[in-house]
Amino acid sequence: MKRKGIHSWIFLLIAVFEVFQLVAFLDFRAKDMIRQEDFVTVYMEPPNPTDRDGALMGRAGDEFTDGDVMQSGDEKEILLLSFNIRHGVDHRGKESLRSIIEEIKSSKAHIIALQEVDYYMPRSGFKNQAREIASALGFHYVYGETINVLGIKYGNAIISVYPIIEHQNIRLYSTALEKRAILKAKISIDGDIYHVLNAHLGLNRKERQKQIEEINAILEALEGNVILMGDFNEQMYIPGGQSISDKLVDTAIIKQKEHLNTYAFYSDLPNTRIDRIYVSSNIEVIDHFVVPSKTSDHSMVFALILHKKNKKAGII
Question: What pLDDT does 1 receive?
């Protein structure tokens, strides 16, 4: 009995140690930033958040209770949002999920990819952040963890006004303590299927190259409408780097908005474009714009696309 009791105490101590180790790592991970030699910084004139060449953050007539009735006819505009929410804390480290929710709600985005999303993490008030955000919007959501210690998780989420009919969380090659994954979902818009992927890549260049190779292999197996969003932790063009599949196009480049940076790397103003949105070449891109966040250290990245109803829709 004594031996059994000792074993129980040992297991408890190990569990407590793992939790504290995870919390300490995630609280101070910002200190372990991308190494300077692993990052190519591009300095540009900071964008004016009010200048989006006519693209709107939402129209008063939009209805979000049912995606199928938001716009009539065979065409409708779909607003995509990629947003690294920094686990819902502000620049002072204060838990601010409500502020994140208000920013997302005000954007009127229809399909949203979130990175750095906590699930019952002590630092963020033991909240299921993806569920709370989706609930506040009245949207569908799926969550994919990259770290899971005793049910305390950290990862990515896809939130959509349109039904999510299938999803898969795929682990990516990772050598660091913070593991990586890509969340893949099938979303139905008027019966047409969109493959939406959300990724948050590693801090090490070699690790990212391997992860992009794995993502490209996933993309090769997909047909039709494909959307890839996320925090790629590097500029698009890196000498000797691995590129995203040429099946997709960068919405910023298509609209000549690649000067709109998304993150301030050792700077007071955004000077890098590491948060991006890609779509398959069959998807028409109407606009691309970036809006600074009052809460997160990443800006919100938007792409406005045109959905054209497939007359043969209904086959998934």
Answer: 53
